[in-house]
Amino acid sequence: MKEEILLTKVFEQPIYVTRPLLPNKEEVYKKIDEIWESKWITNNGRQLRNLEEKLKNHLKINNISLFNNGTMALILGLKSLNLRGEVITTPFTFPATTQALDWNNLTPIFCDIEPDTLNINADLIEPLITENTSAILAVHVFGNPCEVEKIQQVASKYNLKVIYDAAHAFGTIVNGKPIGSYGDMSMFSFHATKLFNTIEGGALTFNDNTLSEKLELLKNFGLKESEKVILSGLNAKMNEIQAAIGLEVLNSVEIERLKRDKIKRTYETHLQNIPGIRIITRLEKELSSYQYFVIEVDEVLFGKSRDWLQKELEKYNIYTRKYFYPLCSDFYWYKNNKSADSLSLPQAYKSVNQVLALPYYGDLSIQNVITICEIIRDLHINLN
Ligand code: T4K
Question: Which numbered atom of ligand 1 lies nearest the CA of 199?
Answer without folding.
Answer: 49
